[in-house]
Amino acid sequence: MNLVHRYRLQLVGLLLSVLGWILTCTSNYLPDWKNLNLDLNVLELWTMGLWQTCIVQEEGGTQCKDFDSFLALPLEIKISRILVSASNGLGLLSLVISSLGLDCLKMEEQKLKKQLLLLGGILLWISGVLALVPVSWVAHTIIQDFWDEDIPEIVPRWEMGDALFSGWFGGFFIILGGSLLLSTICLSSDHQLPEQYAMADMQDNHQHLEIGSRRL
Questions:
Q1: Cα–Cα distances in Å, from 155 out to 140, 145, 151, 158?
Q2: Is the pLDDT confidence value at 197 over 50?
Q3: What is the mean pLDDT of residues 84-94?
Q4: Out of 13, 129, 130, 162, which could bridge 177 as a Cys pair, Cβ 3.0 to 4.6 Å?
Q5: Buried b / exposed e across 41-72, counting CB within 10 Å, b at 16+?
Q6: In the sheet that 159-160 helps form, which strands lie side by side, from edge to edge?
Q7: Would the pTM of this model clear 0.85, i.e. be above it?
Q8: Do the bridges between strand 34-39 and strand 62-66 make them parallel or antiparallel, or are there none, so unpaired?
Q9: Using an 8 Å Cβ cutoff, are 36 and 159 in contact?
Q10: Could you report the per-residue pLDDT of 151-181, keeping only the tens digit for each?
């Protein structure tokens, strides 16, 4: 692969990872993982996130409240809070490591740069998976409860909020960016194989010439 093309591919991979990390951080703090529409005296929208719940009234007023107890939360919310927070922290660490392994940075140890890029790409993959698992789990529980025939139809049901879509896109962009960074390592190594073979052939030819000259 051309060196310039590898630079561009690494830059695109890093930018996608940064965008994905921003989206997963946004989904972590958005209070609308779940939405519940209540049409009582006043039309209200109840939202539930990982850290707080909010009530949005039709008149425009919004009231938010933090959860009183972590143990009182639903299981999927508790696990999601842990996994998404771990994804945000690991994503930041992987972005720093990956940026240090870019080819555009001057470093004498090329082997170290590849190791940093490899480690950063793997950590980005893990970070993306840690973000996709909780949002998919919460979405699954919402869909399962929404179509539960045992719940009466008159009972309001939770629906998916914008935070889930932000987490899905964020996790996907992180995995895609990490894959692009890892692909540059494979392509660069493949590009060096013909050169290694050529050097080996030149050494063999040189040895044959030396042996032939000695015999003469």
A1: 19, 11, 7, 10
A2: no
A3: 96
A4: 13
A5: eeebbbbbbbbebeebeeeeeeeeeebeeeee
A6: 62-66, 52-57, 43-48, 34-39, 159-160
A7: no
A8: unpaired
A9: yes
A10: 767 677 888 989 999 999 999 999 999 999 9
